[in-house]
Each structure stands twice: as C-alpha cells, then as structure tokens.
Amino acid sequence: MLKTEAEFELSKATPLLEEASRVLKELKKDDFYVMSSIKKPTSAVVLGMEISCYMMGLKAKKTNIGKVDGDTNGYFDLARSNLLNNPGQFM
Question: pTM of the entire structure?
Fold first, then answer.
C-alpha cells in the first residue's frame, strides 16, 4: 500500500520536474538581466528568487525588506543584488 501510494505521488511529480529541467536549460543570461529590471515582480518570480536565495545560502536582511513591491520578505531585492546582477556566476 505504501509503495503504491509513493509511486503514485512520484508519477505526479516527475512530469513537473522534467518540465522545470527543460525550462532551466532554455534560460539565457539576458533573461536574468530582464528579471533584475522588473519593478513589480509577480508572486511566482518572487518565490523563484526566494528559493534561489535559499539554494545559494543567502539570507534576506531587514534592509532588503520593502524595497520591491510584492517582495514582503526581501528575497527579490536580495536576489537582484547578489544573483541577477551576475548571471554567469548564478548559472
């Protein structure tokens, strides 16, 4: 029963992982510069940058909070200054 349930959940997650991998392979350096210039990022972009910061070991500080509309935790601002301004290092 547990194995069947795990296989079912895995079958739902696998296509999402494959799609994410495909999209990541298609990213270009210029895409990061475009994201950096966004004045009001969508919640999906903010979440993506928050996850990227976690993956890179970056933690938002109080100085990052409130600088960008919709970025309530400061991670888009942190990503903009540490990841998006140097996409070669980030990629």
Answer: 0.72
